[in-house]
TrEMBL record:
Gene3D superfamilies: Phosphorylase Kinase, domain 1, Transferase(Phosphotransferase) domain 1. InterPro entries: Kinase-like_dom_sf, MAPK, Prot_kinase_dom. Residues 23-398 form the Protein kinase domain. Keywords: ATP-binding, Kinase, Nucleotide-binding, Serine/threonine-protein kinase, Transferase. One of its GO terms (molecular function) is protein serine/threonine kinase activity. SMART domains: S_TKc. This is Protein kinase domain-containing protein. It holds the Pfam family Pkinase. PROSITE patterns: PROTEIN_KINASE_DOM (PS50011).
Length: 453
């Protein structure tokens, strides 16, 4: 049912007064540390849309840059299986605005809820979801992007089986070189934000626990200058869930590339496979690490945290060979060797079969083609993981999809245009600089007919 007038007024604080006239039947869907998400009816199109209200965008430069990055990524992606930025709602004052209102597609639910329901999923639907996911990811990667937080909660689905990637707040662009660092100041800030990212948090049993969005709560989110994180219990559990889909190179704080998204797809694929008819299991995540203290300054605790997740990965996939870790630094190789008590000495072919068998043991209903794809996606060596485009284009798992029904693979992006759009990433900008850039994007979207009120 629509949200009461007091909450509606609190939600629209900072937006141009015409916005509330255009978007009616507002329903608050969730509240996070930095944002509030609502569904509403767009009276211009008569469609239901989602509106994300981001408070205090210019509280610090990191937050402002994250918002600018998400705006430009969503603005430029334009793909049927990526959430669309339909409009940016004009603020009450362009000179002093602090909050952003992003209008996007509305989807009924997300893949996390669908997986947690443990309801059977037809094989054709699993194939369709995987094809749509890889098509969207191929487009992200062609635009030099890395999602960096791909997990079931960030994959929206409709009642008709359509899928869209969302939540690009942690995404990055790689316009020069092709890899990003997992360490350093920016990475530390990101790790702090990862634990609080999104519009809802996980309770201890994994169910959604979105804070109640009352007028007081909305006003507090809007007015707070302290930007306090949610309770530690929520931080810890949310952070653990995110880590379940994290590739070894990120855990080891090695440079990483688009291959980290491919690893995440593999983790999600396993959860979909066990929902197929005939599956003996409904065990959930493939690599469910248990121990995590996201904001600890205790190096020993951070070390144990990393080892916990690596332990889970290598317990499932067995100890790696030296060849599988040839991409890592000597220090990381030594760390893994200590953790697994020495490397495997199996020949490459035997080791590959061992990994497939271990994965088959986790996916009772999966056939050899599914296990082959899963093993490719979850290659320990990131250089051995296939690209999203190559998998969708050539892997036998997708051969049953008629060419006309296969999700599109768009041409690679113009690298010069990407470099220009994300030049701000390489500049040391303050909040005033970023306010000007975001204001310019607001004007541009309005001129293009995407001003939301």
């Amino acid at each position: 049912m629509p949200t009461d007038e007091l909450n509606v007024a609190a939600f629209w604080q900072g937006a141009h007064k015409e916005a509330a006239k255009r978007y009616t039947d507002l329903v608050i869907a969730g509240q996070g540390a930095y944002s509030i998400v609502a569904s509403a009816k767009d009276t211009h199109t008569n469609e239901t849309v989602a509106i994300k209200r981001i408070a205090e965008v210019f509280y610090d430069a990191h937050e402002a840059k994250k918002v600018l990055r998400e705006i430009r990524l969503l603005r430029d992606f334009c793909h049927p299986h990526i959430i669309s930025l339909r409009a940016l709602i004009y603020p009450a004052s362009i000179e002093t605005f602090e909050d952003m209102f992003m209008v996007t597609d509305f989807m009924q639910t997300d893949l996390r809820r669908r997986i947690k329901s443990k309801q059977e999923m037809a094989e054709g639907l699993v194939v369709g979801y995987m094809a749509q996911m890889l098509s969207a990811l191929a487009h992200v990667h062609s635009l030099c992007g890395i999602h960096r937080d791909l997990k079931p909660a960030n994959i929206l689905i409709s009642a008709k089986g359509s899928l869209k990637l969302c939540d690009f707040g942690l995404a990055r662009t790689v316009t020069s070189g092709g890899t990003l660092s997992s360490a350093g100041t920016d990475a530390a800030v990101d790790r702090g934000r990862e634990a609080r990212a999104g519009s809802e948090y996980e309770s201890e049993d994994g169910e959604a626990a979105a804070p109640k969005a009352t007028a007081d709560a909305i006003a507090e989110t809007v007015a707070s200058k302290s930007m306090m994180p949610p309770p530690l219990k929520h931080q810890m559990t949310k952070y653990v869930v995110t880590r379940w889909y994290r590739a070894p190179e990120v855990i080891l704080q090695e440079p990483y590339s688009t291959a980290i998204d491919i690893w995440s797809v593999g983790c999600i694929f396993k959860e979909l496979l066990e929902l197929m008819p005939g599956s003996r299991f409904r065990t959930g995540a493939l690599f469910p690490g248990r121990y995590c203290i996201p904001f600890s300054f205790d190096d020993d605790k951070q070390f144990r945290t990393r080892h916990d997740q690596l332990n889970v990965i290598f317990h499932v996939l067995e100890k790696p060979t030296t060849e599988e870790l040839a991409w890592a630094t000597v220090e990381s190789q030594a760390e893994v060797a200590r953790l697994v008590h020495g490397f495997s000495e199996l020949p490459a072919l035997e080791r590959a079969e061992q990994r497939k068998q271990r994965l088959a043991d986790k996916c009772g209903a999966a056939g050899s083609v599914e296990i082959d794809l899963l093993a490719e996606l979850l290659a320990i060596d990131p250089r051995s993981r296939p690209s999203a485009a190559s998998v969708l284009d050539s892997h036998p798992y997708f051969s049953a999809i008629e060419p006309a029904e296969k999700p599109p693979l768009f041409p690679p992006a113009n690298k010069a245009e990407v470099e220009a759009a994300f030049a701000f990433e390489r500049e040391n900008l303050n909040v005033n600089d970023l306010r000007i850039l975001i204001a310019n994007d607001l004007f541009r979207m309005m001129q293009d007919g995407h001003g939301g009120g």
